[in-house]
């Protein structure tokens, strides 16, 4: 293998590790229980609008599919994808963007942390 190819492969591997490390860091920062989050997204009716990997529901197409949300740069196109912002969006999306179709559902702080914890597992 040529030296340039080896350097490129090592750079790509390091970038992948950094993204995975970022996802783990985000899950730790939200302080939520991802397993519980996966279970409660149905209770809040999230599957009525979003397709969510690992959560049974209709073929929802109102909101964006949440597959890969952990790797996205922005939440709802307006907030940098950071734990505090994810929790903020889940709890009160209307306060962030009054034109969003996503309703404010009265999600508690704990539930928002658990849901965010689950969403950060979705790569």
Helix-strand layout with pairing:
Layout: H1 3-30, H2 34-43, E1 74-75, E2 79-80, H3 83-91, H4 93-96, H5 109-119
Antiparallel strand pairs: 1-2
Please give a quick description of this structure.
The chain has 123 residues and is mainly alpha-helical. It has one domain (21-119): Cytochrome c-like domain (Cytochrome Bc1 Complex, Chain D, domain 2), CATH 1.10.760.10. Helices cover 50% and strands 3% of the residues.
Structure description:
The mean pLDDT is 86. This protein is mainly alpha-helical. It has 5 helices and 2 strands, in the order ααββααα. Helix 3 (83-91) crosses helix 5.
Helix content: 40-55%
At CATH's second level, what is the architecture? Answer: Orthogonal Bundle
Distance between the termini: 31 Å
CATH topology grouping: Cytochrome Bc1 Complex, Chain D, domain 2
Strand residue content: under 5%
Number of beta strands: 2
Biggest sheet features: 2 strands, antiparallel
Q: Which strands sit side by side, in order, in the main sheet?
A: 1-2
Indicate the mean pLDDT. Answer: 86
